[in-house]
Amino acid sequence: MRMRKIARIGLGLVAAATALSAVAVPAASASTAALPSVHLKLFAAAPAGYTNPDDITRLGDVLFVAYQNGAQSDGSPAGVKSNVVGFDLETGKIKYSYVLPGKVDGLTADGRHHRVLVTVNEDLNSGFYTITPSEDGAEAVKQFSYSPSPAETGSDGTNGGTDAISISSNGTIYVAHSNPDVSQPGANNTAAVYTVKLSGSTAKLTPVFGVNDTAAVINPAAGAPATAPLGLTDPDSNRWVPGKDGGTLIQDAQADSKLVYVSDLDAKKPTVRQLNLTNAVTPSGGAATPQLDDIIQPGSTSGDLYVADQGTGAIYRAELTHLPHGTLFASQPAPKSGDLPNDPALAVVDQRTGVVTHLSVGVTLANPKGLVFIPAAHHGKK
Predict the structure, then answer these.
(1) d(CA 257, CA 197)
(2) 20 to 30 A from 142, CA-CA: which of 20, 64, 231, 310?
(3) What is the pLDDT of residue 9?
(4) Taking all residues of the chain, what is their mean pLDDT, rounded to a whole number?
(5) Contact indicator for 162, 204 with CB cutoff of 8 Å
(6) How far apart are CA 178 and CA 308, in angstroms?
(7) What is the DSSP letter of 203?
(8) DSSP letter, residue 343
(9) Which of 221, 368, 360 is CA-nearest to residue 291?
């Protein structure tokens, strides 16, 4: 999550939340009848000395977890390292373990190449790595340099990095441009998301859409315009969803309390829409719009959902059945200093109204972060 200027952004969103609380929401979105039943159970505790699990991903029969160990979003303090640990999905035992410099933020399986893609340091000094479990020792981890750098210089200094990674069915890699510099002169429309092409030791970045592109609003307030500039300051987690013309990338803008839907990804100019988010229930700390971390839309009605709790270090699992079509799970993390006063929870998002509803999951989540869903038919398969 973007750590700079959050307090200023947050104050604006509190005001927006207060105004939106008066907007009528269609009854269907407020109904609890279609909410999924989720009962989390412990899958794996953090290995000794490892803390702050964040992103998680599944490659074959292994669940990979990134432990950030207190690293900051720019990779400080000097010498700090993250651990990426692979747990056997059947036994929960550790099968692989790797050490990477800085703070691991993005972690996504690339099944086509039997590897895991990794980004480090979301706000500045960002880097890209691959982990290939079939390789031995130091050969398993490969480092890439970005071209161009995602860091940019504006009137407020230099900032910018990379965060979440998604991969489409044709192998296209998408990465969020985290903490983009929104103080640049001129058009001031830096990339919100890049595609990544790996060649040699270079990760070439190509913009997909900009932080200030004009986009249709899926759920405009009464009397509000049907289109508006995105105004993104904090592209964070994302997910690629299969569909025609290249599928759809759902990009979460955490501090901005919105989801961005980018479809027609194979077109020269993709179609961009935005969904403004509101809470179904006012948070205990006062009115606020949701600031979501991870999101995932299961591609099946049954399977296992995994949740990383950064606050306790635990990885939880729930067996799910009869999921409503189009269910979108989201993790609402515990607020940091300057964040909006949301309550930590696993939630679902109504993709029509933008209403975020917290779920009762059988355990108390201190700070939920990474999510993974494994369809029932895919367990144990590469």
Answers:
(1) 29
(2) 310
(3) 39
(4) 90
(5) no
(6) 21
(7) E
(8) P
(9) 368
Token pair recorded at residue 251 = 């990009």
Distances from the Cα of 10 to the Cαs of 37, 123, 219, in angstroms?
32, 18, 21
Give SS3 for 64. strand
Span 91-111, pLDDT tens digits: 999 999 999 999 999 999 999
| Closest of 104, 122, 242 to residue 176, by C-alpha | 122
Instruction: Give the model confidence (pLDDT) of 299-340 as tens digits.
Output: 899 999 999 999 999 999 999 999 998 999 999 999 998 899
Task: For residue 66, report the phi and psi dihedrals to the nearest 5 degrees.
Answer: -95, 120
Two tokens at 239?
């997910």
Report the alpha-carbon distance of residue 273 to residue 215 in Å, rounded.
5
Predicted local distance difference test score (pLDDT) of residue 1? 60
Sorted by sequence, the CB contacts under 8 Å of residue 105 that are 6+ apart come out as: 54, 55, 66, 73, 119, 120, 121, 122, 161, 162, 163, 164, 178
Task: Give the phi and the psi of residue 251 in degrees, each rounded to 5.
Answer: -110, 120
Evaluate if residue 49 carries a pLDDT over 80.
yes
pLDDT (mean) for 263-276: 93
- What is the structure's pLDDT at 19? 37
Q: How far is it, in rounded angstroms, from Cα 217 to Cα 276?
A: 8
Sole residue written with tokens 């390292």: 81
Q: 373 or 187: whose pLDDT is higher?
A: 373
At 29, is the secondary structure helix, strand, or coil?
helix
> Residues 340, 356: contact at Cβ < 8 Å?
no
Position 26 pLDDT exceeds 60: no
Give the number of other CB atoms < 10 A from CB of residue 380.
Answer: 9
Q: What pLDDT score was predicted for residue 308?
A: 98
Give every CB contact of residue 9 below 8 A, 6+ residues apart in sequence: 233, 234, 255, 256
Segments in the chain forming alpha helices (H): 6-20, 27-30
Residue labelled with tokens 């949701």: 290
Rg (Cα) of the chain, in Å, rounded? 19
